[in-house]
């Protein structure tokens, strides 16, 4: 067992990824009780909603869990671009007898500017807080550290990882290009190096001095063992937990995942690159310049709701990594148990690299 896992009292070096819209308090608590680190995602709500989720997890477990925040740059509203985006989607809305939105909203508040969320976290003191899309201000990091909170942040390349280390974050989540959901890139319009999980994990292990958590395409205990062989302190799995009965994935999402289809990186749904199961939305063509994230996501969610009302699930944000065909539709507790057994079996082989 790694020092990082031992610090959190884990029986397997595993983090259940914090997937907004999918992770539930029940999922996180079940994962924690099974010996891994469960996670909830607070980026889509306010401080009151976040506190309610934290309390819901604590009602079912006393073990450590992770709370995740989005730290994206605030988008710059552009009425002309937003109108053009809605006009482009109008034909899709018309399929379901619905008009496109009249105006688009910034539906998610960045943690970088959310004093209420910070105050709530300092008071609630979850064991772990993680950041996606960037880093909060130094004062926020210092406040969480003073409250005894362990911090993680996502990196997709060495430059981001070094910024995370300089900021005093306790561990780096190395997100490979195989990962499902939104890329954790600090700058979504910068050239993406598209590093795979193994290459990125090994690079960060060799060039940084904080624990590295491997994330992206890992679906079983052998994958966890492989990540630790490269020097990772733990592995983070997301897609593996979507099919669990405790997740909030709807039937359309679960059916698409069970079909084990292709995935692709797209910005169409939310305005920011994310890996999704190929569906009607990802295959749209002729898109104009997209509004910034999360403004574009307001339109994407509205289109999905309109289609879903007609029984069409092909416009959903069905985020998934490249290992979809390895997903298992079992309970989260059963999955963690299976992952532990597979990990133990795999670690009976060669020692990890240093």
- Return the CATH topology of the domain at 3-72 and 108-251 and 326-346: TIM Barrel
What kind of assembly state do the chains in view correspond to? single chain
Strand content: 5-15%
Please give the count of helices.
13
Measure the end-to-end span: 15 Å
Envelope shape: globular
Major β-sheet profile: 8 strands, parallel
CATH class of the domain at 3-72 and 108-251 and 326-346: Alpha Beta
Contiguous low-pLDDT stretches (5 residues minimum) are: none
Give me the Rg, rounded: 19 Å
What's the arrangement of strands in the largest beta sheet? 1-9-8-6-5-4-3-2
**Number of E strands:** 11
Which architecture of the domain at 3-72 and 108-251 and 326-346 does the CATH hierarchy give at level 2? Alpha-Beta Barrel
Spell out the key features of this protein:
TIM Barrel, 8-stranded parallel sheet, 354 residues
Can you walk through the features of this model?
This protein is an alpha/beta fold and 354 residues long. The chain has a domain at 3-72 and 108-251 and 326-346: Aldolase class I (TIM Barrel). It is 37% helix and 13% strand. The chain has 13 helices and eleven strands. It has helices at residues 3-7, 25-33, 47-58, 79-94, 115-124, 138-146, 158-166, 197-207, 221-229, 239-242, 251-258, 295-308, 332-346, and strands at residues 14-16, 38-41, 65-70, 128-132, 150-155, 171-175, 181-182, 212-215, 234-237, 263-266, 274-277. The strands form two sheets. The protein has an eight-stranded parallel beta sheet with strand order 1-9-8-6-5-4-3-2. A three-stranded antiparallel beta sheet has the order 7-11-10, with no helix packed on it. Strand 10 and strand 11 form a beta hairpin. Helix 9 crosses helix 13 (332-346). The chain starts with a helix and ends in an 8-residue tail after the last helix.
């Amino acid at each position: 067992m790694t020092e990082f896992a031992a610090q959190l009292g884990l029986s397997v070096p595993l983090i259940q990824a914090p997937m907004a819209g999918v992770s539930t308090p029940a999922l996180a608590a079940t994962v924690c009780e099974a010996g891994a680190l469960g996670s909830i995602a607070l980026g889509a709500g306010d401080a009151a909603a976040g506190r309610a989720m934290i309390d819901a997890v604590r009602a079912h477990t006393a073990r450590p869990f992770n709370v995740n925040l989005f730290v994206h740059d605030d988008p710059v509203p552009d009425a002309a671009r937003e109108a053009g985006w809605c006009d482009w989607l109008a034909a899709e809305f018309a399929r379901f007898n619905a008009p496109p939105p009249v105006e688009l909203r910034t539906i998610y508040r960045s943690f970088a500017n959310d004093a209420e969320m910070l105050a709530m976290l300092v008071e609630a003191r979850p064991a772990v807080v993680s950041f996606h899309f960037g880093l909060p201000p130094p004062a926020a990091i210092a406040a969480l550290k003073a409250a005894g909170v362990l911090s993680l942040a996502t990196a997709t390349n060495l430059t981001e990882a070094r910024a995370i280390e300089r900021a005093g974050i306790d561990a780096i989540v190395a997100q490979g290009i195989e990962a499902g959901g939104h890329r954790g890139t600090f700058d979504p319009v910068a050239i993406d190096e598209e590093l795979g999980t193994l290459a990125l994990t090994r690079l960060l292990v060799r060039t940084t001095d904080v624990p590295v958590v491997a994330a992206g395409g890992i679906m079983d205990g052998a994958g966890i063992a492989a990540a630790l062989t490269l020097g990772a302190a733990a592995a983070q799995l997301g897609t593996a937990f979507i099919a669990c009965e405790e997740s909030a994935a709807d039937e359309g999402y679960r059916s698409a995942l069970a079909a084990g289809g292709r995935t692709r990186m797209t910005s169409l749904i939310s305005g920011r690159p994310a890996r999704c199961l190929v569906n009607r939305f990802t295959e749209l063509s002729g898109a104009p310049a997209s509004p910034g994230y999360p403004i574009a996501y307001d339109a994407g969610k509205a289109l999905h709701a309109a289609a879903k009302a007609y029984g069409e699930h092909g416009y959903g944000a069905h985020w998934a990594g490249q290992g979809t065909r390895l997903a298992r539709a079992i309970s989260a507790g059963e999955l963690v148990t299976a992952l532990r057994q597979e990990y133990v079996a795999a670690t009976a082989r060669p020692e990890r690299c240093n």
